[in-house]
Amino acid sequence: MCGIVGYIGPRKVIPVLLGGLTKLEYRGYDSAGVAYLDNGKIEVIKEQGKLDNLREKCSGIETDNTLGIGHTRWATHGAPSKINSHPHLNGSGTIALVHNGIIENYVALKEWLIKKGVKFVSDTDTEVAVHLIDHFYFGDLVSAVRQAIEMLEGSYAFAVISSNEPDRIVAVRKDSPLIIGKADGENILASDIPALLEYTRDVYFLNDNEIVEMKKDSIDFFDIYGTRIKKQTTKIEWDVTQAEKGGYDHFMLKEIYEQPRALRDTFSPRLKNGIIDISEMGIDDDFIKDLKKITIVACGSASHVAHVGKYVIERIAKVPVEVDIASEFRYRHPLLIKDQLVIVISQSGETADTIAALREAKSQGVKVAAVVNVIGSTIAREADAAFYTYAGMEIAVATTKAYDTQLLSMYMLAYAMARTRGTISEEEYDRAVRDLSLLPEKAEETLKLKEAVQRIAYERFMDEDVFFIGRGVDYALSMEASLKLKEISYIHSEAYAAGELKHGTIALIEPNTLVVAIATQEDLIDKTLSNIKEVKARGAYVVCVTTEKYRAKFDQGVDEFLILPEIADIEAPIITVIPMQMLAYYITLNKGFDVDKPRNLAKSVTVE
Ligand code: F6R
């Protein structure tokens, strides 16, 4: 949701900024721009479209400039055009600013500034910020930024430069991420860690309303009152090669194939002497025993994890679970109770709606645990406890490996709680631990469905509507299968509880409509089979996703199979998702679309 970068140091700044933006392009890619100081003047280069367009525009420019800021945009206010792209300038061109977030009171501020004679050139909310800083600027950029943000409502991470103070970048954040990388004789800031890793592993995480003044040899922090504050660096241990495609055509494919490793890394450290250790959730045995309710809150794919989590936790640990979409949570005025746990799930740890939900729960005095992938992210820091998924860096916009490790976390939580609450026999617990340990191998085996999936993808990539149906956890998984397909292939698709189809949606089934039926749960097989027959009777083309042991049940009734490795029914979603991700991937490939950067989307949704 927009990526910002800023660099000061001895290197030529344009390649550094472009390199940083490349690592941030997953955050938005409808336009991009850079601003840098050249002979005491600010120069701006911007271009509409993907970063390559900007790269091309910059290609002839040979300068030795060593300070600059850059931006890659996901449009909110104003169309994705050159004029609306960042950096934005004040009237005299002496201050440049890049912004990630939304200024909610920009209309009132714009009117106020226009009355003072300011001329606006773009349709963005961002432009008010640069004019406001200009309004307060009397030779001290930190002070001007500090006064400007006092008037701003909304979310922001800004990086600002002024030609009057050519030795510094000033930046600030509120509800949008900003990380400062400390290196030797050079410093760099960015919206996310991958953009910094080439230069340093020592980073500062900026908190809300903290201002940073970054020079070549120094980094100073100030609070909202202008008082100097001290901050500690955190060492980032990530492997830089995770940010490379490593021989795969796309990050999405690489990340699909990384799932066995991701599952292993997420499970192994928590298995201690045959017991699943969920102490990182911050809940002790007494709390677990007294637990009356769990509310799981998340967005998009992470909310689909929550739906599987509901089935699994209720079934295994016998705790009532409600699922909320984060963007709805605080506006429905949720009634949270004592003795309850709120779990927020997030890959990025920066999703604005999920952060707002977390804060709502905390404001009601309820314990909040986060299942989160990005270490040191806002959600990881603000929750009472962070249970990390070790999926590693996820670059493709459509989540795959993070989703699967979130899913695994739900099972670990369910089984660990069940053991404490005495709702599971020792035998069943040991079976579960054994099976969860084997998941990486099962995932590996599932990847062998590639050819079968490719064939279906080739036959069906021209489809205009696809339906995914299932019951129980298979229904919860269908939601993710459907989202994967629509978000990257742009094919309209819907997920339906198989039994619900006949209450209206079946009207959409025509001869040859593709229906993917997921059926991995023994107790529901016959019911799902009836629903398959209903769509077959209307001419649907049915692909059935099941395990070998249930195949015979469907033999006569379906057109194609995707047969999963044998697995305990309840845990099937963890591997079922893999051929669904591959189906979306190969269909999109056949259509010739950009798999890693689908239109209109951004990886990290830091606006409401
Ligand atoms: C879909 C996808 C999104 C995210 C959602 C939440 O493939 O990735 O639906 O799941 O935007 O993002 P996080 O998990 O970062 O909070």
Structure write-up:
The structure is a single chain. By secondary structure, the chain is of the alpha/beta class. The protein folds into three domains: 3-237, Glutamine Phosphoribosylpyrophosphate, subunit 1, domain 1, CATH 3.60.20.10; 240-437, Glucose-6-phosphate isomerase like protein, domain 1 (Rossmann fold, 3-Layer(aba) Sandwich); 447-595, Rossmann fold, CATH 3.40.50. Helices cover 36% and strands 23% of the residues. It has 19 helices and 27 strands. The protein has an eight-stranded antiparallel sheet with strand order 3-2-4-1-10-9-11-15, with helices on one face. Strands 5-6-7-8-12-13-14 form a seven-stranded antiparallel sheet, with helices on one face. Helix 9 packs parallel to helix 13 (401-421). The radius of gyration is 25 Å and the shape is globular. The relative contact order is 0.09. It binds fructose -6-phosphate. Residues 299-302, 346-348, 351, 354, 398-399, 483, 487, 604-605 line the site of fructose -6-phosphate. Fructose -6-phosphate (F6R) binds next to helix 9 and helix 16.
Bound molecules: fructose -6-phosphate
Structural class: alpha/beta
The multimeric state of the shown protein is single chain
Radius of gyration: 25 Å
Number of domains as seen in the coordinates: 3
What sort of overall outline do the alpha carbons produce when their principal axes are compared? globular
Biggest sheet layout: 8 strands, antiparallel
Q: Look at the structure and give the mean pLDDT.
A: 95
Low-confidence stretches: none
Tally the helices: 19
Q: CATH class of the largest domain, please? A: Alpha Beta
Query: Any idea what the CATH superfamily of the largest domain is called?
Result: Aminohydrolase, N-terminal nucleophile (Ntn) domain
Strand order of the largest sheet: 3-2-4-1-10-9-11-15
CATH fold-level label of the largest domain = Glutamine Phosphoribosylpyrophosphate, subunit 1, domain 1
Q: How many DSSP E strands?
A: 27
Q: Give the termini separation.
A: 11 Å
Which architecture of the largest domain does the CATH hierarchy give at level 2? 4-Layer Sandwich
| Strand content range | 15-25%
Which percent range fits the helix content? 25-40%
